[in-house]
Amino acid sequence: MTAPLDSISSSSSSTHQISTHPPIALKNLVKDYGTLKAVDHVSFEMRPGEILGLLGPNGAGKTTIISTLVTLEKPTSGEARIFGLDVTEDPERTKMLTGFVPQELIHHGYFDVEEILEFHSGYFGRRKNRDRIDWLLQKLSLWEHRKKKVKQLSGGMKRRLLIAKALVHEPKLLLLDEPTAGVDIELRESLWRFVGELKATGLSILLTTHYIQEAEQLCDRIGILQKGKLRHLGPTRELIKELTKREIVIRVKGAVPENLLSPYFVKRQGEELIFQVPSNMGAGDLLSGLGMDLKSIADLVIREGNLEDALRRVLGEGSNNVSADGLTKAKS
User: Fold this and answer.
1) Is 151:110 a contact under the CB 8 Å cutoff?
2) pTM value?
3) DSSP for 272-327?
4) Measured between alpha carbons, how far is 207 from 159 in angstroms, rounded to an integer?
5) Mean per-residue pLDDT over the chain, rounded
6) 249-267 tens-digit pLDDT
7) CB burial of residue 311 (10 Å; 0-12, 13-18, 19+)
C-alpha cells in the first residue's frame, strides 16, 4: 500500500532528500515513438522553488516530458528523477511528491466538486483533509460551486478543479501542462496570481504554455524546445537580453538623410529611421555614432526586445507570425 505523503515527508531521510536534490533532474532523456524522436537527449535540472517554463511549437516535446515525469510515458532511454527518485523505479513516492494538471479536461462522472476532492485526498492517504479542501475551494473560487456536479461546471471552472485536485495533497512539485488553455483573460490572470502565491510558499513549478506573455510574466527560467531537443535554457530576462536586439526609431525633421553609414540601420519609413542595436547599447551611443544634429530629431522611440523575439531567434521563425507554430500572445 502506498504510504501517505505525511509519513513520507515526515521522515528525516525523505526530508533531507527533498532539500538536497533538485525537484526535477533529466539526464539524456529520450522518448521515441517508432521513427519519431519526441524527446531527444534532453538534460536539465530544476532549481528548488522556481517556476521553470518549457516553451516550443506543437510537437516540440513539452507534454511528452511531463507525461514521462508522471509515468504516463516510459522513457526509451535516459533518466527522469524527482527529488532524486527515479520515476520509473519509484513511481509511488514520486507521485506522492507531485501534483499534475493535464492539458485535457477530464470527465468526472456524476460526482460533485467536493466529493472529487475528498476522493482524491483519500488516494494520497489524506482522510482528514477538510481544511486543505476548503482552502483550495476558496482560493480557486470554487466554494459556491462545491455542490455542483462536474458536468454543470463551465470549462474555466473545470480547469480550476484540475488545479485543486493537483494541490489537494500538498505536493512539493507542481506540473502545469497548458493550465490556461481555452480560458478567458480574466480567469487566466487570476490563475497567474495564484501560481505566484504558490511559488511564494516554496513550491517548485514546471509550466508549459503557448502564451508568451504568460511565460515572460511568471517564469524565472525558460527552456526552449524544438523537435525534441532543448535548444536554450536560462533565466528569462538574461535569455531575452542575450537573444534579442533593441529597436530604436528616430523621426527626423525635414529631409531624411540619404546615406547612413551605420551597421545598425535597418530601413527607412517616411520620416522614420529604424535601427536595431545590441540590447546593452543606448540611444546616446547610436546618435553619437551617427553624428546627427539633435535639432533635426523630432522624436525617438525605443522598443526593448521581448520573449517573443527571443523565441523567434531560437526557433528560426522567418515571419512575424509566431502563432503559426502554436505560440501566441495572450489576448483579451
Assistant:
1) yes
2) 0.82
3) EEEEEEETT--HHHHHHHHT--GGGEEEEEEE---HHHHHHHHHT--SS-GGGGT-
4) 15
5) 85
6) 998 887 666 666 788 888 8
7) buried
